[in-house]
Amino acid sequence: MKHTPREIQFVHLKTATLPYFSAAVSNSSAPQISFLVPAKGSAEILTETIEQIHQYLSKNFSESFEIILIPNPLAINSNQPLSEENAELLKVACELKTRFKELRIIPHEFPRGKSAALKTGFMASRGKWIFTTDNDLPFDLSFFDQAAVHLKSGADFVIGNRRRSDSKTIVPTGMFIRYVRRYFLSRCFSFAVRTLIPIIKVADTQAGIKAMTREFAELAFRLQTCPGFYGDLELLLAALQNNKKVSDLPVILTVDDNKSSVNFRKELSLALYWIFKISKRNSEGLYREASALNSESYAGDLIEIITSEAEFPSNLVQSRGL
């Protein structure tokens, strides 16, 4: 499916006026990699995250990449002041932008959720391949070394699989009980998925590290309806129902609940709701390419924050009354 150009509105840091100027998202001189990083209330870890991703991409993909940082939920074109948390996140993000020319800041407001934020980031991206992982970097980035090999060999969608025998999980002693709880929830989810949706054979659909071709991402994000974590399941179904080549690879996972954004009290009810809803949509054939032709899941404006080394995030924060 051919990528449809989108209009993007740019907000200048100094004035926060919308729009500062507009232009169409263009794939001319597209980088090889667009690395999508959803960021929700993560100012304290953001610098380390972007530094590590930039270092990895610079070493392995030279200059042919862009990093799309997606603060969410974040309303730029609103008369309401930014929350203290979002103001700090945006401040750190803009400071990083002055350091790394490959970094782009694409805020996402609504609907809330990781998958919805990734969709917004993809819409603004230009890369031939789309990489993404969780913003706290729980997975070793070496996953993308092998993912690139598989994409070059014809794979459309490459996912991490924590259940493979050659995957490794590093659990600090103090985190063991919390990890067992997460592991149990994950296995229950996997069992329910494979029971209700037999086409899925892989034991891990929810690992937050993935790589895909641009063509597949365009199709998959159009078919995706869940704004949250369980949108990952829909991406896999989009691949399977359209005979795309899927590869699952081992991962190295470091468990650190100090950086986790998962609320376990909500996860069970959300998991049950989305498993049944996605299962029903799958039985109705709604993850096949024909359904995407009638799907317009891209709503709202695309916004990119621009700045320069002479301007600091405090200008934006002050203009929003903070």
Q: Structural class of the secondary structure composition?
A: alpha/beta
What would the CATH topology be? Answer: Spore Coat Polysaccharide Biosynthesis Protein SpsA, Chain A
Multimerization state: single chain
Shape: globular
What is the overall pLDDT average? 83
Q: How widely separated are the two ends?
A: 44 Å
Short descriptors:
322 residues; alpha/beta; seven-stranded mixed beta sheet; three-stranded mixed beta sheet; globular; disordered N terminus
Give an account of the 3D structure.
By secondary structure, the protein is an alpha/beta fold. A 7-stranded mixed β-sheet has the order 5-4-3-6-9-7-10, with helices on both faces. A 3-stranded mixed β-sheet has the order 2-1-12. It has a single domain (about 5-320), classed as Spore Coat Polysaccharide Biosynthesis Protein SpsA, Chain A, CATH 3.90.550.10. It has 10 helices and 12 strands. Helix 1 runs parallel beside helix 2 (about 85-100), helix 2 runs antiparallel to helix 10 and helix 6 crosses helix 7 (about 230-240).
Task: Give a brief outline of the structure.
This protein is of the alpha/beta class and 322 residues long. The chain has helices spanning 43-61, 84-99, 114-124, 143-152, 176-196, 214-223, 231-241, 264-283, 289-293, 313-319, and strands at 7-12, 21-24, 33-39, 65-71, 103-105, 129-133, 157-160, 168-170, 209-213, 246-249, 252-254, 302-306.
